[in-house]
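Worked example (supplementary).
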Amino acid sequence: MIDFGFGLARSSAVELDKVDLSLYKELERLEPGIRKCIACGSCSATCTAGPWSGMSVRKLILNLQRGKDVSGMLSACMLCGKCSIVCPRGINTRQLILSLCRIYDNK
Amino acid sequence: MRERFVTGFDPFVLPFLAGMIFVLCYCAFGIVRILAQLPREDRRRFLLSLITPATALKNIRDIFADCLLHVKLWRRNPLLGFMHSSIAFGWFMLIVLGHIEVMVYCPDRIRLFYYPIFFNYFVAAGESTIGGAVLFFLMDFFLLLILVGIGLAIVKRIRSRIFGLRRTTRPSLTDRIGLYSLWAIFPLRLLAESFTAHISGGSFLTIPANWIFRQFLGNDLNMLPTWWAYSIALGVFLFVLPFSRYMHIPAEMMLIPMRNAGLRIRHPRKGFARLEVLSCPECGVCIDACPMSVKKANIKDCTVYLNRQLRRGNERRIEEISDKCLLCGKCEAVCQVGVEGPLLRMEQRASRRYGLSPDFSGIDLSKLQAPAASSQKVLYFSGCMTRLTPAISKSVCSVLSKAGVDYRWIDQDEGLCCGRPLQTAGRYEQARQLMRKNEELILSYGADTLILSCPICYKVFKDEYKLPGVRVVNYMEYFAELIAAGRLQIEKSDICYVYHDPCELGRGCGVYEGPRKLLGKAAGIAEAPANRAESICCGGSLGSLSLDFAQREEITLKSLQNLYDSRADAIATACPLCLNTFARYSDRPVRDMAEILDAAAR
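After joint prediction of all chains, the assembly is encoded as:
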């Protein structure tokens, strides 16, 4: 193969029929507020843990909705609560993360 | 005095006797259980404190002042204080005097449990003695005192507002049984003693009552049934005592020595925590104090109901109540027996199991750490919350520059959280990880002073951080020193501010007067009706896990209303979270102390 210095990106398509959404469904049952998220990113902008770990509540919710692994981001949260203060939709993001930590299955 | 019965016994004493034996066994078993639940070193400490003369003396004094005389309650509300101490102290004196009577007149009966209680039934008066008259007078006097107390209690149950309580606890079934039997005991005692007064003798209450009854009752047939009723009322009260709020009577007597021994809550349910829960008299003072109770739906989430649910073991409600609380600490500040409501909830949160726990050990601080030649002796840590209210950090820096302080703002670009939010969520282990990281960062500068502008940080830095050689100060304390040293001139403006005590700074760290003095130098000052230890949480507290944004609005409005009542032009506070929360709803300007001082500093 000739190296052109660029290549095709790996497909990031998510087949929603196949991914495991049980974690999101369970969280949605516990914290119905998650449905209100408009992915505006205010939470990510204010996140204390963000610069250290790439933590972003917006991304976390999107990843959950796509059945992706979120444990890396989840274990970086410092629970400072600024994301709940700035959320324009009034989602209690801090409680959302705590609930997610509780139901998260390590195995 | 001579005894009326050779046996010294009548079956009517049985209900009382059974109840008394039951309560004593229950309490003995409870004491052993709680001692067994204590960690080993706590138990040792407690037992040692009991034989240390200084603490033993303090224990006796405290038990006398708090359990019998209710000194604290007197200070808070004299009418309530009188009601409680008349019943508690009066009853105590009746028991003591009863024993003295038995010891004086029939010393060989002192071994019988019931004799001092039913003394008047078992004796007949001979030629009267001065001593006897004095004893009888005292007995009637204390009985009258209790009856007045009971009368007040009945009025309080019907109209609690007269006693300054807007809302009181809704008694549970066992509480009601205990309450009504307690109300019945003393009128029945008066009746019983009145019916026997012509035989046993009496004083200013019982003898006239006896005379009146004898005017229309031709015989003594009422005597025995009334003594039966008195004994049954006592028996019922004693039997429901362990299952009702009246458990606080024996529990508090145990709690006081344990607290004096320096014990703390180490388990959400066992040992010291259990004792605190049992010591709650369910008086309901915390209901009016709780900022959440502005909404009727939240009343059942006050500390008094947490204690009740903890007694019942209702896990679902315990979780709900624990998560909702703002941890503002006001219930603890007003509590008469010192139940640590916020701590009980935090321990409950800490006892939870999580599938995943944060891990901060991988955080690399190298980009924040001090350059090799760091000369600044003064550091400023603004904390993560201040990022939402940059006016605070900007003003602090401005004042420091005006005073010519050579400082370094260590989390100007990036910083870690102080760990307090994790702590309030009950994640102690993770909070400690963050604290160690911050300690490492701060110590790397080799400074001697650390200025904090966020009271949430300040609380945890003061209580938990180990920073040898570094003085941790709140910015207001530091500014006051600068002013005293003449490095900072303050010009007084004509705006009148009301100072809002942030929970973490006031009740959390006990800082009340410093900010007021400083504010008084920079502007006019007014006081809100509820201030200092009674200040009302702004509603933005990170202590609450489950209260969402909409549910907090009413709390904030209530807190603001209290501040408006001072008729000040503007509101001053010293917490980024209070500032942020108030600024959304307030109809007048809200300023942090740093902003006010910056505007006034020359």
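Two points are worth noting when inspecting this output. The helical segments of chain A are 22-30, 42-46, 50-53, 57-65, 71-74, 82-86, 93-103. Chain A has seven helices and no strands.
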